[in-house]
Structure formats: structure tokens, C-alpha cells
Protein: Xaa-Pro aminopeptidase
Amino acid sequence: MTDTRPPYAGTRYPRLAEIPAFTDYIATGWAAGPVPATPVPGAPEAAAAHRDRLSARLPGRAIVAAAGTARVRNDDSDYLFRADSDFTWLTGCQVEGAVLVMTPRPGGHDARLFMPAPFRPGDTGFFANAAHGELWVGASPGLPEWSDALRLPVEPLPDLDDQDLTGALTTETTATALVAQHGLEPSPLLERHLSRLRMIKDPWEIQQLRDAVDATVTGFAAVAAEIPHAIDHGLGERWLQGTFDRHARTHGNGTGYTTIVGSGPHAPTLHWVRCDGPVLPDEVLLLDMGVEARSLYTADVTRTLPASGAFNAHQREVHDLVERAHRAGLAQIRPGTEYLDFHYAAMEVIATGLHDWGLLPVSVDEALSPAGQHHRRYLACGIGHHLGLDVHDCGKAEYEDYMGADLEPGVVMTVEPGLYFHANDLTVPPELRGIGVRLEDDVLVTATGSEVLSAALPIDAAGIEAWTKAQQR
Structure:
């Protein structure tokens, strides 16, 4: 009988790199040509200014920051890569595995970027490396192209092993992901300085946030238009979540955080990201959504819509109270006021309204006192935060930099009071149970006051009803 088995049958399956005929053949016959590096326009210039600001804060100290690597989703499948925010702020680069080294010199720092080079035809990695082989990931810019685009010296990543980084300041992403072999540990000093510097956005950053907010507003419109379809066809919250996520991926890098779509009894759940329930036609629909721009700056906006197009009396009463608190918070956003002033102003309105409804077991003053906080049963979360590359931006700042600081022009923050009456909360009357309302806007502190970047979306109940109906025509 003729043996029809392949020549390697009965032996171990050979690796392609071990077959000379294959490696010789796959190395030839490819059209060659440089692939340009295309960072977000303006990002390299903004990053250079950011490095100068950090350099002035930390003279004489070596600084290392890494882009990081994609996390494993399951087995050999990774999540989509998203570069570390501090690294992006300092480089304008989003290349997986890249590392920035800032070496001190008199009067500042010299910056160099170490980057994995793509594997091209003729390299074994071209067909064998799923992370950087061009047969797997497509044609990629080389190190010279990135150097020209970023206006930085770019060197091969393996050369990082030859660098003496002893005593360098580094971020948590860097210390844990890439350069542990140098004995580096995360530096709270560096992370605090980065958070403090990132609080004040420059004009380029503000424009990135404007673009992210504008794309988010049109994403809200796309979702509102789909509400009847989701109801009529039983597609539920997940359909609306997918609608926004597709919009975000089309008009930006994706979503800045997991999209929240909560209908009826799910609306009071602060982080309802499961989105596995129906869209109930007579209930409110809480939408907390944000597009992340391709520069990685993100919006964070919330509106609560009546799925039917009109609030009932109880839903509107709750929404009106949240709106009053929202306006009180917005009124405190201006230079020179303490960061937490907007929080106290909004909370006073909430506590007073709940007391008027008979829902507080103590007086308003007792509730607002540090020893009380009874009103927080229905609003346990914070009602605002800095916004930028991270949805909760500048989180490594100290209290006196963040909560205890005065607002300055260039700060971008959110204001987001709400009321959350859970369906199983027996302290509220039955007609309020299962109602959750949040209003969240993105706000820029200006030289003379503030600007609501998300003002294209109404915040009053009548305006929201009219806007929702308009999207569905």
C-alpha cells in the first residue's frame, strides 16, 4: 500500500521556523515600503510641553514611564490594547510595549523612547510572533518613522536592558509590567506630580475633551433613537449599550468606561454594566456613557430619559429635585472656589428635598453634619471628579491637591448628583421605589467662570422629554 501520509507523520509536528524551505520562501516576494507613523495631530507637541512641565518639577531625577502591554482575556487571547495614561500624556504615543526614559541633564531632561520594532519579511517573527509580526498585525511603522513623527529619539526595546535606571522614578504600570529587572518600584512622588500636572488641561487637551463630548452627545442621540426599537423587539438594555459602543468605536477609540444602561429597577444601581434587562416602556432609563477620543481623552455624561417620551408625576418629581441639585453644583464651578464647594451645594439641595418629602429621620442640619449623612442612603457615591485621559482623572493626587484645592482655569470636571431609590428599599414609598435619576455634565473651569461642555443635552425634565421625542421622529 502506498504511504500517503505527510513526510513528518509519526514525528512531532515541525515548527515553521525549523523548515528552511518555508523560511526561505516566505522571506521573499513582498512589496516593500515605509509605513508612516500617525500619532493624533498635535499630540507630539503637547507631549513635549508636558515633559517640560514634569522636568521642572523633578530636576535631577531620572524618570521612566511605560505604555504597558495588553492584558490576557483568556488563554492566548488579549484584550484590545490601551496605552497607560501617564505614558500617553508624556509621549503622544500609543505603541504597546514602548518605554520612555527621561535622563536628567543641567537645565532639564533628555528624553528617549524604547520601542519594539515590527517584525518584517525576513524576520522569523514576521510569521511566528502574533504580537509584532506583520503577517499577524499588519504593516507597522518602524522606529525611524516613529522618531520623526514624535520628534524623539527612538531606540530598539532590547537596548533598554543596557540602561542604568538605578533610582529612577517610575509609575506603577512601568514597575510591574516592563522593567522589574531593573529593580524599580512605583514612585508615589512621580505619580502625585503627574496627577497634579494633569489637572490643568492645556488648550490641545481641552479640544480633545470637546471632541470627545461632542461625539458623546451624538451617541446619546443614536441611543435615544433606538429606544422604541429595543422595546418593540424585546432587545433590551444590551441593544442600547451596543448602539453606543459601536458609535464610540466609530467616532473615537471606543468607550472611556463600560457603558451603563439601566432601565426601571436597574437605574438606581450605580454601576449597572451588565445591561441584561429589558427596556421597560413606562420606566426611566439611566444612560451613563462616554466616548474616548483617539487621543484617549474621554467624556463622561449621564442623562435619565423617560423611555415612553414623558415622565410620570413621580419620576418628574425626582428628576426635578436632582436638577435643582445639579444647578446648585454647577453654580459653584469657577476659579478660586474650593473643589468640594459644588459637592456641598448639591448635597444641601438633596438633603432639603428629601426632608421635605419626609424621607429623613433627622433634620437637614443633622443629616448634613459629618456625624449624620442620612441623605447619602439615596446618594452614596461622590458627585463629581476630574476628567481627562482617565474618566476619574488624576487619582494619584493627594487630598490637598485634589479635594482640598481651589479650582483653577483649565480644570475639567464632572458634576453628577443623583437619587437612587432601590426597588427593595422599604424606607421610601412604593411609588418611588425603582426610580434612579442622575444628571452628569462635563465642565471646564474658565478664567471668569465655567463652561458646560455637554450643554447640547438638556437637563430640565421638559427639555429632556422634547429632546427624546425629537430623536425618535
Notes: Residues 234 and 278 are 7 Å apart (CA to CA). The chain has 14 helices and 17 strands.
